[in-house]
Design goal:
Blueprint: H1 2-24, H2 35-51, E1 56-57, H3 70-94, E2 98-102, E3 105-110, E4 113-117, H4 120-154, E5 162-163
Antiparallel strand pairs: 1-5, 2-3, 3-4
């Protein structure tokens, strides 16, 4: 059970990391196509991760990862921090504006107000930023359950997570 969840979560994370790196390079031949199924997979993996903790007493979020090796802490910490930096960078570059097409011309718009017209190269760059934003955002939601299930498959139950009925 845990091995399948580990493979699905971390395998999807690797694919999305590749899509993300390609988007950083400005290469997004499939656009958002690989990102949307990854959102569904991330949701399913994260839901399984949360469901695995029902009925357990958790005193701190760190209890979830208490018995992880150092490399796992560092990997998740990097991915989590990078997702925040990536989002802030996206907002700084795009200003939160969107690309819309009107009368055959593509415009950069903010809350319905046209900021400026975009040429095809700028549209591709903006699309790459969108792929980069979404692919970077879902990585922590794949890596956290993937590493958790990897550690659970190695060791049945972490010592820091105590079932509720035995805590009484």
């Amino acid at each position: 059970m845990y091995r399948t969840a580990t493979f699905v979560a971390l395998g999807t994370a690797v694919v999305i990391a590749i899509v993300h790196v390609l988007a950083i390079a400005g290469y997004t031949p499939l656009g958002m196509v690989p990102v949307f199924p990854a959102f569904l997979i991330a949701f399913a993996c994260f839901a399984r991760f949360v469901r695995d903790h029902r009925g357990r007493k958790i005193t701190s979020p760190f209890d979830l990862i208490a018995n992880w090796p150092r490399w796992a802490y560092l990997l998740f910490g990097f991915v989590f921090l990078y997702a925040g930096i990536n989002f802030a960078w996206f907002m700084a570059v795009t200003g939160g504006a969107t690309v819309n097409e009107q009368a055959g011309q593509t415009y950069l718009m903010d809350h319905g107000r046209i900021l400026r017209a975009l040429d095809p190269a700028e549209v591709r760059a903006y699309q790459a930023w969108n792929v980069r934003l979404f692919s970077g955002h879902i990585l922590p939601f794949l890596v956290l359950p993937g590493l958790y299930f990897l550690m659970r498959s190695r060791k049945r139950a972490p010592a820091s997570v105590v079932p509720l009925d035995s805590a009484r």
